[in-house]
């Protein structure tokens, strides 16, 4: 059951989203509910139990139901990803990050989005979508107005591009997470979006190492659209590092694990490996999968709650 504080926060989020994408109708569409329901909720006259519809809205608009129980630390990968997002936005560039799962891409991009929601930042979390479905999700996220009825891909790209052009003064940024899930027809739409919005829109695609592999493979095999796609993203994809011991200590500290021996044990239990930094002969020891760190930190917190100590 949602508390009144949570409901009030979601109502505030509705108003913020309206300012961001232009209308309550667009907000309602994004949330998968009617504009009338939005209006009644804002007036406090929604007849039925509001928990279900409020939860649906909260999920659609990225409300943190967990009340920030897990905190993001200012660590190496966080800084790398944040810098890429900032650069892409400020210079309206198309950039890509390709790195194995569990490296903090989603958490960091979500944090960046939450800090910049009012500053023309948008994010789509992808599934196995073709071109038309992908464009539908982008249009819904940015509040693009589409003509009624069936719209072909060219019409959808034109509407999306016009929406970005209208807010060009804000340097819009579109973050595409889990881009490795997209089908080739969806990836090809970036070619036309780039052509329409060059020097207007920044785009960052985030995916696993398979994203880069499939793009480069498509280029080698001369598959339709892959060379053009690769060109627009600079033919280079940024790789991350992992969590050093110092990073792991920071993650532990901001999430309540302050004992130095426990912090070192968590790092060791994550089976860290030696890597050589790109463009350098320096080697460092890192944990590749942040989810392992998170799981062990939470396990330590549970011990503290149950027994009063973690060792």
- Helix/strand-derived class? alpha/beta
Tell me, rounded to a whole number, the average pLDDT: 93
The parts where pLDDT drops under 50 for at least 5 residues are: none
Distance, first to last CA: 35 Å
What string, H for helix and E for strand, traces the elements in order? HHHHHEHEHHEHEHHHHEEH
How are the strands of the biggest sheet laid out side by side? 1-4-3-2
Biggest sheet record? 4 strands, parallel
Radius of gyration: 21 Å
Number of helices: 14
Verbal overview:
The strands form two sheets. The protein has a four-stranded parallel β-sheet with strand order 1-4-3-2, sandwiched between helices. The radius of gyration is 21 Å and the shape is flat. It has 14 helices and six strands. The model has no long low-confidence stretch (mean pLDDT 93). It has 311 residues and is an alpha/beta fold.
Question: What labels would you give this structure?
Answer:
311 residues; alpha/beta; four-stranded parallel beta sheet; two-stranded antiparallel sheet; 6 strands; flat
In terms of topology, how is this protein built?
Layout: H1 4-21, H2 24-31, H3 35-43, H4 51-60, H5 76-91, E1 94-98, H6 105-115, E2 121-125, H7 131-142, H8 153-166, E3 173-177, H9 184-197, E4 202-207, H10 209-220, H11 226-232, H12 245-254, H13 260-269, E5 273-276, E6 283-286, H14 290-307
Parallel strand pairs: 1-4, 2-3, 3-4
Antiparallel strand pairs: 5-6
């Amino acid at each position: 059951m949602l508390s009144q504080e949570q409901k009030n926060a979601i109502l505030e989020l509705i108003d913020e989203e309206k300012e961001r994408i232009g209308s309550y109708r667009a907000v309602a569409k994004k949330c998968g509910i009617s504009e009338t329901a939005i209006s009644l909720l804002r007036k406090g006259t929604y007849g039925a139990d509001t928990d279900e519809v409020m939860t649906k809205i909260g999920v659609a608009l990225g409300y943190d139901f967990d009340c920030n129980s897990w905190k993001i630390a200012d660590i190496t990968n966080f800084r790398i990803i944040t810098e890429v997002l900032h650069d892409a936005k400020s210079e309206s560039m198309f950039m890509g990050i390709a790195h194995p799962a569990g490296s903090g891409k989603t958490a960091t991009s979500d944090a960046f989005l939450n800090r910049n929601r009012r500053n023309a930042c948008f994010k789509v979390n992808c599934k196995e979508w073709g071109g038309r479905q992908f464009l539908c999700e982008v249009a819904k996220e940015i509040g693009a107005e589409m003509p009624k009825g069936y719209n072909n891909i060219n019409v959808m790209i034109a509407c999306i591009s016009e929406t970005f052009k209208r807010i060009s003064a804000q340097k819009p940024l579109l973050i595409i997470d889990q881009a490795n899930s997209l089908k080739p027809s969806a990836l090809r739409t970036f070619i036309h979006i780039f052509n329409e919005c060059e020097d207007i829109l920044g785009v960052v695609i985030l995916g696993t190492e398979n994203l880069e592999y499939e793009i480069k493979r498509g280029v080698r095999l001369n598959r339709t659209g892959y060379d053009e796609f690769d060109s627009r993203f600079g033919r280079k994809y940024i790789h991350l590092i992992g969590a050093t011991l110092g990073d792991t200590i920071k993650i532990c500290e901001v999430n309540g694990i302050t004992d130095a021996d426990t912090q070192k044990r968590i790092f060791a239990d994550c089976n860290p490996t030696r890597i050589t930094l790109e463009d350098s002969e320096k080697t460092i020891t890192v944990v590749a999968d942040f989810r392992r760190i998170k799981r062990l930190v939470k396990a330590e917190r549970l011990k503290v709650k149950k027994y009063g100590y973690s060792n």
